[in-house]
Design goal:
mainly alpha; Four Helix Bundle (Hemerythrin (Met), subunit A); Cytochrome Bc1 Complex, Chain D, domain 2; 2 domains; two-stranded antiparallel ribbon; 2 strands; 2% strand
Length: 235
Amino acid sequence: MRMRTVLLVWILVTLFASSAAAPADVSVALSDLMTKLQLQHAKLWFAGKLSNWRLADYEVQQIGANLEAARKLLADPSQADRVQERLRAVRKALQSKDVPAFMASYGALTNECNGCHRSSGYASIVMQIPLTLPVPNQLFVDQVSEGRALANASCGTCHLVADTVRDTPAFRPPPPGFPEIVSRPSFSADGLRQFLTSSHRRLGPDQAMPNPRLSESQIEAIVAYLETLRADQRH
């Protein structure tokens, strides 16, 4: 009889502790999600503003997933539904690559977030359009697109055109196109950096290529473009 009483007391204490801890656990989980959303909200702004559509789309996907997780923890799930509706407008602007439309939809998304905070009793938490970069170690411009433009402008006259006659001497074979360059086993990012940072006036076999005199950031953009081109060939 005494053993049964002790067991009953233990069960009641366990149930009480679990019910008391549950609201606290939900609050912690929701707070963690809001912290993630705040960072993603800021990163989305700079990605979209700088027309880095791939990065912006990635951040929208992350925001959407975290909103869905938050929805399951909210007392009123319709709050998350309204934010998701604003997020869909942002996604539509990204798909059309429309910067003004992105900015307008982003502002509406931010206002909806603040409305959700106020209706939940957290009016002191106010989101705004970011004024500074959220992280110092991430580049928000579309480096690959910049690298493509630089490569075409600096080297494309010889290396890019494959279906037209190049202005090259008859005794010299035409330079390889970018896809051929990156498919070579000898191609490497470090080798390309060393090649483009050369102080010589002319580069390459027989010094046939004028040195484009690129800055470090321009060289990194071209490296990013060609490495992406090589990765695309492998998939």
